[in-house]
Design a protein that fits this description.
Blueprint: H1 2-15, E1 22-23, E2 36-37, H2 44-54, H3 64-81, H4 84-101, H5 109-118, H6 121-136, H7 147-160, H8 170-178, H9 192-220, H10 224-236, H11 252-263, E3 267-270, H12 280-291, H13 301-304, E4 307-310
Antiparallel strand pairs: 1-2, 3-4
């Protein structure tokens, strides 16, 4: 598991005292251990955001207790990083996971489906908050630790070339021509939607909306990992660029995670509750095998009567 590998590797990297793994806290942010923890990724934001977007892949772990413990370990490392954006996204993802994971005999199948679909309001709320903050802070460039200035620059650049954007190096060109921000913000305007629209204009933005709708559709159909993923993307995307859709870098890992979720659309689903009955990657493999007829005879009749395959 990539998430667990990064978690374990970062922990060992930090405990070994490797250079760059631990840095002093800033006045405006600090990890719960009293330092900023970057692990193997070189920056606390990079570590926190990558781990947040990899949490949905933990559902490849079929054992529920192991999955929860792994999620807790990843969450602790996000808290240790000191990344504020990652913490906000963690709270959103954790709340959705907790809401859907609670088991009660009072929850009928209809109620479970309703709760599962209401949980999709979490990513919708994240996208709404992102839009509101960009619009409402236009007259206050210093808001949100200077992010409002970056958003204003991105919006102006998009307005100049709305159809095709400014290309992969558009943001770097803006930095070079204006000198309005430093190298620490040189990779992105610190907003997921603006980052995509700046690079590719309306067409790229439409592509992002399309992908988002696909993840939401998977969540609507009962695929919890996609619900968690799109929630993380929405809330982390308010003040950061958690996924790179352009030049490859550390955040490309988040895009790979999202693509894996879309590829795992074949799965075994309980006909009563609509929930996956096994780890989703394992379910995907078994589903493909069953459709091809390679393991149809190996599936017990009692199980076949309770499960159906759906795409």
């Amino acid at each position: 598991m990539l998430a667990l590998s990064i978690t374990a590797g970062s922990s060992l990297y930090g405990l070994s005292g490797a250079p760059g793994a631990l840095t002093s806290c800033r006045n405006d942010k600090c990890g719960f251990t009293g330092v900023l923890f970057s692990g193997v990724l070189g920056h606390e934001n990079s570590l926190g955001l990558v781990l947040i977007l990899l949490i949905p892949l933990l559902f490849a772990l079929r054992d529920r207790l192991v999955r929860l413990l792994a999620g807790a370990a990843v969450g602790i490392l996000v808290l240790a990083s000191g990344s504020r954006t990652s913490l906000i996204a963690l709270l959103a993802v954790g709340s959705v996971w907790l809401l859907l994971a609670i088991r009660s005999r009072h929850r009928t199948s209809t109620l479970r489906v309703a709760i599962r679909r209401l949980a999709l309001l979490a990513p919708v709320a994240g996208f709404a908050v992102a839009t509101f903050l960009v619009v409402s802070s236009r007259d206050n460039p210093g808001a949100f630790t200077g992010r409002s200035q970056l958003w204003n620059l991105a919006v102006s650049a998009i307005a100049e070339d709305p159809l095709f954007g400014r290309g992969l190096y558009g943001w770097a060109d803006i930095r070079q021509s204006t000198g309005a921000f430093g190298a620490s913000a040189g990779y992105s305007p610190h907003n997921q939607f603006l980052d995509v629209a700046l690079q590719g204009g309306v067409f790229a933005a439409a592509g992002l909306v399309g992908l988002t709708l696909l993840w939401i559709k998977q969540g609507w159909d009962g695929f919890l990992p996609s619900t968690l993923y799109v929630t993380a993307l929405a809330w982390a995307g308010i003040s950061e660029r958690p996924v790179s859709f352009g030049l490859p870098d550390w955040s490309s890992v988040g895009l790979i995670a999202g693509i894996l979720l879309l590829a795992a659309n074949w799965r075994c689903v309980d006909t009563e509750t609509g929930n996956s009955t096994m780890g989703f990657l394992d379910a995907a493999g078994r589903s493909v095998g069953t459709i091809s007829g390679s393991n149809a005879k190996q599936t017990p009749p009692a199980i076949r009567s309770q499960l159906h395959l759906r795409k």
